[in-house]
Design a protein that fits this description.
Elements: H1 7-14, H2 19-31, H3 33-57
Length: about 60
């Protein structure tokens, strides 16, 4: 697979992309294990940050 502009992966992980961009990223993710791993890492960080926000607000 050729080079992929990974700038959308973070936005994808945060749910910030429109439907067309989500579909484009998901097509790429189907074929690219490196980017799937990067998305998993973004989602793990997001989960930690969400947990911190929840803990701080209690």
């Amino acid at each position: 697979m050729g080079r992929y502009d990974r700038t959308d992966l973070g936005a994808y992980s945060l749910g910030l992309l429109d439907a067309a961009d989500v579909a484009r990223v998901e097509r790429h993710l189907d074929a690219c294990p490196d980017c799937r791993q990067e998305v998993r890492e973004f989602e793990a960080v997001r989960g930690m940050l969400d947990h911190l926000v929840e803990a701080k607000s209690t």
